[in-house]
Amino acid sequence: MTTQPILEISNLSAGVGDKKILNGITFAMRPGEVHAIMGPNGSGKSTLAAILAGREGYEVTAGEVLYQGQNLLELAPEERARAGVFLAFQYPVEIPGVNSTYFLKSAYNELRKHHGLPELDAMEFLTLVKEKMKLLDLKEDLLKRSVNEGFSGGEKKRNEIFQMAVLEPRLAILDETDSGLDIDALKIVAAGVNKLKRADNAQLVITHYQRLLNYVVPDVVHVLCDGRIVKSGGKELALELEEKGYDWIANGEALPA
Amino acid sequence: MMPTKNNQASTETGPYWEQFERFAQDSRQPPWLRTVRQGGIARFAELGFPTLRDEDWRFTNVAPIARLPFKPAFAGPPEGLPAEVLTQFTFATLAGPRLVFVNGRFSAKLSSVAPGLGGVKLGSIAEELAGDSALLEPHLARYARTDDNAFAALNTAFFNDGALIIVPAGTTVAEPVQLLFISTAREPGATSHPRNLIIAEAGSRLTVVENYVRTADAPYLTNAVTELVVGDQAVVEHCKFQDESLEAFHIATLQVRLGRGANFIGHSIATGARLSRNNINTTLAAEGVECVLNGLYLTRRDQLADHHMIVDHAQPRCNSHEYYNGILEDRSKGVFHGRILVRPDAQKTDAKQTNKNLLLSESATIDTKPQLEIYADDVKCTHGATVGQLNDESVFYLRSRGIGPESARRMLIHAFAAEIIDRVRCAPVRAELDRLVWDRLEQNERIAVKS
Lengths: 257, 451
Hints:
Chain A is built from 8 helices and 12 strands. Chain A is α/β, with parallel strands linked by helices. Chain A has a single domain, classed as P-loop containing nucleotide triphosphate hydrolases (Rossmann fold), CATH 3.40.50. Chain A has a 6-stranded mixed beta sheet, sandwiched between helices. A 4-stranded antiparallel beta sheet of chain A has the order 2-1-4-5, with helices on one face. In chain A, helix 4 packs across helix 5. Chain A starts with 6 loop residues before the first strand and ends in a 7-residue tail after the last helix. The model of chain A has no long low-confidence stretch (mean pLDDT about 90). Chain B has 2 domains: about 55-390, no CATH class; about 390-450, no CATH class. Chain B is about 20% helix and about 35% strand. In chain B, strands 1, 4, 5, 7, 8, 10, 12, 14, 16, 18 and 20 form an 11-stranded mixed beta sheet that branches. Chain B is globular, with a radius of gyration of 21 Å. The N and C termini of chain B lie far apart (about 65 Å). The interface between A and B is medium-sized, with 30 and 25 residues.
C-alpha cells in the first residue's frame, strides 16, 4: 500500500471541441514526491492542470487518471477537492462580496465533513488561520477582505498557497504560480510550498521557467511539448532546458535516438 | 379652475383637481405654500401621468396607478397604531431618534426624539407649517424639480406632512435618524404623499434612514419627495429602504443639492412594492463634491423596480460614483436609467457608473440605460452594465476548494448583494440590511441550500 501512487496518469488525451491538446500523457507521482511540468506556451500545461482539477469544457478522449487508486475524472470538482486535490490557480478569481475568512472556513469545513470530523467554529478556525498566515507572510487584514479583490498579483499567488496551507491537500497542483512574481515574492511562495511538503503528499509544479525550481526542487522534471511528455529526468533537466531553450526539445535534439 | 390640455389628461387628472380644491380649502397653511401647491397641481394637470411614450418612463408603465381611485390620506381618519407594531419592522432596534409617520402623518406617540441634540431640529413638517413657517419658506419645495416630474408635482400639491431635519453648522448627529413611514392602507388607491426636508448645514454630519413599510397588503400608493441639502463640507449618509406591500405602488423622488466639498453617500435598497420608481436627482452645485449613489434591488414574482438617476455635475472637480446591483427572480423586472450630465464648467469631473444585474430566472428582465451628456472636455466618465447569470469562473473557483455547486451559487448571490450592502458606512444600519437581505434571499428556494 505504501507504494501506491498518489497520482497515476496513463495515456491521457484530451482537447476542446475538435482541437487536441493533450496527446497520451503518462506519469505517476508517489507520496513525498515533487514533480515539475515544464514546457513552452501552448504545450498543454495549463490544460493538464485544468483537467486534473475538473474544469468544464475539456473532453478526455483517451486514457485515465487515478488518484489514490480512484478514477479522478468521474469526480466533480468539489469532490476532488474534498478528497485532497488542490489547484493553485494561475489567475485566481476575484470574488467581490465573499469574505475571505468565510470562504476559507466553508471550504475547510467541507473537508472536515468529508472526513467525518466536526466542523470548526469561528474562533477555532481563526486560530488555525493565523498560524498558517505566518507561513506566507500575509497581513491579517486580508482575512477581512473579499476573496482576492483588489489584491496585487503577488498577493493573489500568496493567497493561493495560503489556502493550500489551510486545506493541506494530498495532491497540490501549482499552475504557473511563479508567473508575475518578483524575486522576493517568489522566495516567500517557494518557502511556503516547501514547508507544506510532507512524506504523504505530492506536489505538481507547472512552470514555464526554471526560476521557481531553484527554490522548489523537484524530484522529477517532465518536459511537455505539443501535449506530449517528450522527456523526463531529474532536476538537472530544468537547468539544461534553461540553458538550451525549448527549441532544443522541440527540434528533437534532446530526444533519445 | 380646471385647465384642459387635452381630453385624456383632463380625464386623468380631473379627480385630482376636485380633491385639490377641497384640500386647499380645508387645510390651514401659509399663503406662500398655497402658491407652491397651486403650481404643483397645475403642473401635474399639464403633465398628466407619464406614459410609455415618455423617454423617462419607457420601461415603466404607471397606467395601473392612473387607474386607481385617488384617495389621499388626508381624507381619512388618522390611524392609531399600538407602539408594539414597531417591533416587527426592519431597523426596529436601531438606536437613535425616530420619527414615525402613519399613512403620511406624523405620530408623536410612536416617535422617539431624545432631547438635547445640540440645536438639531427634528420634527414634523405639518407642525412646523402650523406654527411659524418662516424657516421652511426658503427651502420647502424649492429643490425638487416638478417641471418634468408629474409625481413630484402631485406631491407638492397634496403633501401634508413629512420629516423636517435641520442640523446646524458644525454639528455632528452621532446616531442615525430614522424616518419610518408605515402604511396601514387596506383599500385600493389610498395615497400618502410624504414630504421630507433635510438640511445639513456647513460642516455638519448626519446619517438618515428613510424606511417605508406596511402593516397590510393592498394596492395603495406612496408618493414621496425628499429634499436634501448638504452644506459645504458636510458629510451625509442617506439610506432609503423600501419594503412596501407587493400589491402597492411606490414612487419617490430624492432631490439632493450638494455644496462645496460636501461628501454624500445615498443608498437605495428596494425589496418591496409591485411597482416602485426611485427618482434620484443629485446636483453637484459646487467644487470638490464626493457623491456616491449605491443601490440594490431584489425583485420577484411580478415586481418592477425602477431607478432613475440624474447626476448633475455643475461645477469642476467633483467625483460621482454610482453602483447599482439587481437580483431578479421569477417574472420580475428591473429598470436602471443613469443619466450623468457634465456641464461646460464642470472640468476635472470624475464620474463612474456601474449597473450589474443577476437574472435568476428565464423570465426576469432588466432594462438598463446609461445616458452620458458631457459638455466639458477635461473629464473622466465611465459606465458599464452587466446582465447575466453567475460567473462560471467564480463558481469553479469555489468548487475547486470543496464547496458544492449549490453552496457556491448561494455564496455568490449573497456576495452580489453584499457588494452593495458593504458600502453602507453606518455599522448598525449595514448589519441590519445585511441580515435582512440574507433572509430575503434565503426565502427563495432557488437560492437557499437544498437539504
